[in-house]
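Whether sequence alone determines local backbone shape is best considered at the level of individual chains. The sequence in question and its structure tokens are set out directly beneath this paragraph.

***
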Amino acid sequence: MKRRATEKKQVTSKPLGQIIAESVRGEHKAWPTDPAYSTKGSHEDSFADGDKQRVLWQIYDCAVAGAPIPKWAAKAFCDSLVAVVTCQSTWEREFGEVPAKGAERRRLTYQATIQKLAKNLIGVGEAIQNHTPKDDNMYRDLGKRFGLNRKNLKDYWARYKRAHCL
């Protein structure tokens, strides 16, 4: 008797930094990005258009790939860092605020949401991916385990799937 393969191939989770960097580059929407700036275009073009964090993402991408930092990014970073450490400017002015400017209440809500997402995205994604069956009991059990409601679990699972092309 032949045995049928019914199990899905397990995906190795990407590191959180990779998921965020891919979202910043517009490869998927698994991580929320600042709607004030486009994820289209190169880091250099986005930086020139005012997205000051893109110089940091350019350096991040180079560091991860072991590639040299482009001259535009090296100069922009050095100029900005010197301005900050000599008190001629602030980190926020040179590299952008995280999150971008907004009402204090909205900023605090965003911060809490992002911290919770960062803490749980990969764990929830792996737990749901490895759980059989995917039913109401799963959401109840995982909700208790992670301290999240069903809506958050489903949101994190959808983000995890986008990041891993599932």
